[in-house]
Amino acid sequence: QLFPESCLICQKYTNSVVCEECISTIPDDSFDFFHEGIPVYSFSSYSNNVVHRLLHEVKFRSDTRSAAVLSEWIMGRVRKDFFQDCDICIPIPIHKRRYRRRGFNHVDTLFFDTFVMFKKTYLCLLDRRVNTPPLFSLDRKKRKKVIHNSFQPHIDYSTMDLSDRTVCICDDIFTTGTTLDEAVRVLRLLGAKKIKCCVLSKA
Question: Which of 78, 65, 73, 83 is nearest to 48 (CA)?
């Protein structure tokens, strides 16, 4: 690269997608909460401009460099005690059409390195059998209807027994919890009893 590029946030010249000064403005506001009895760990709030812009670049512009910035930020903020008892980490899947268009599952790019760091099994156990429309504009009732029966176990793991495993589901954003509910429903069919969830941000 011959010339420096502009920071996505402040437009100053930098050698990365976002300058270190803007990254440092992301507050350490991670928090835990429960959803339908499932413990959820959120690294940030979706209202944070830096997180919001970077994730937008990843999801809608297939920008792997922005994904790498977020992945590195997650690794630096991860809370060890939440993940130490997890046996398997399972990303929320995207449909194969969206995968072909984007070239990757953005959830993998966010969390894979973190779970490898903890020497955890990262398993793409779920498939998205329905190419659901974007959910951001829908209320909880409509989201639940759209997402119902959209996941299934990957054919390689359809008989896997999760009864003695602690499973951690990972996703980018927690909004109403309907996506998590559907993933939990399928994992329960495979015997999962202890399930956790981590998300990059909570809307």
Answer: 73
